[in-house]
Write a structure and sequence with these properties.
By secondary structure, this protein is mostly beta strands. It has no helices and 17 strands. A hairpin with a 2-residue loop joins β4 and β5.
Length: 261
């Protein structure tokens, strides 16, 4: 039975947000939701719900103030420090009053959107140390769990480093009869780069490839002998698809000892 002097509140609102609004907050940041229920007689009771379950906390502060015509405005503040578990969770404040029918509750709801980092990416379809043979078809999937917003995953192959020639100083002169050993090195990459020596734009089959282990740089050694008609020695790295420009030439010029230029 309702008192003749009882008057229901005129509205209910979580301040600053429309009904069913999304509230964006970073994980661990403090968030205060303020519920206001005005113009009730007597003052309305405010109850909070989390995901449709009554939420009781010592961080809830509720008070009421008298207004005109002996009516009251009730205010309740809920302080939160959201975690990833609060993402997409509804928080609702509900007004309880003797003049409000139980089958027509007066309430206001917002939904939290908690920004939090995704999990560390991992690869499915490959076990560490597993040997994959040339031509074998392997399907790999890069995944990362959680995160708001979800992680943007980028997969890329690791090309080898640019070729480096050692054993020769640019601009130096190599005279006829001099024995000169130069080394080409390219580090990293999977698979390792194939290094090829070229002499006068022709592949030099005499270049030597020393033994190397999987984690050592790929190297080709070449021994040069000075000749008057030897004008260049260049390097080409393949496979071509790792380098859109096709090749990265490095040229060593040799000068005849009788050449007075």
């Amino acid at each position: 039975m309702h008192s003749d002097n009882a008057a229901p509140p005129t509205s209910i609102q979580i301040q600053g947000y429309s009904q069913h609004a999304k509230v964006e907050v970073r994980e661990g940041e403090e968030l205060t939701l303020t519920c206001v229920v005005p113009n009730a007689r007597p003052a309305a009771q405010i109850v909070w719900y989390r995901a449709n379950v009554e939420y009781k906390s010592n961080t809830i502060e509720t008070k009421s103030a008298e207004t005109e015509d002996h009516r009251y405005t009730a205010t309740s503040k809920l302080q939160l420090q959201p975690t990833a578990e609060d993402d997409y969770i509804d928080y609702t404040c509900q007004a309880r009053h003797q003049a409000i029918p139980e089958d027509r509750p007066m309430q206001s709801t917002v939904q939290l959107s908690v920004l939090y980092p995704p999990g560390v990416p991992y690869i499915e379809g490959y076990a560490p140390g597993e040997v994959i043979r040339r031509g074998q078809h392997v399907q790999l999937a890069c995944r990362s769990r959680g995160g708001n917003p979800p992680a943007q995953l980028i997969c890329k192959a690791v090309p080898p480093g640019p070729p480096i020639i050692s054993g020769y100083t640019e601009g130096s002169i190599i005279t006829v009869g001099t024995r000169q050993k130069i080394m080409c090195t390219s580090s990293g990459g999977n698979p390792l780069a194939t290094l090829v020596w070229y002499k006068n734009d022709k592949k030099d089959e005499k270049a030597q490839k020393p033994p190397h282990h999987h984690h050592q740089p790929t190297q080709y050694a070449g021994t040069l002998y000075g000749r008057a008609n030897f004008i260049g020695f260049s390097l080409l790295v393949s496979p071509f698809e790792l380098f859109p420009s096709g090749h990265h030439p490095v040229t060593v010029w040799k000068k005849h000892r009788n050449d007075k230029r």
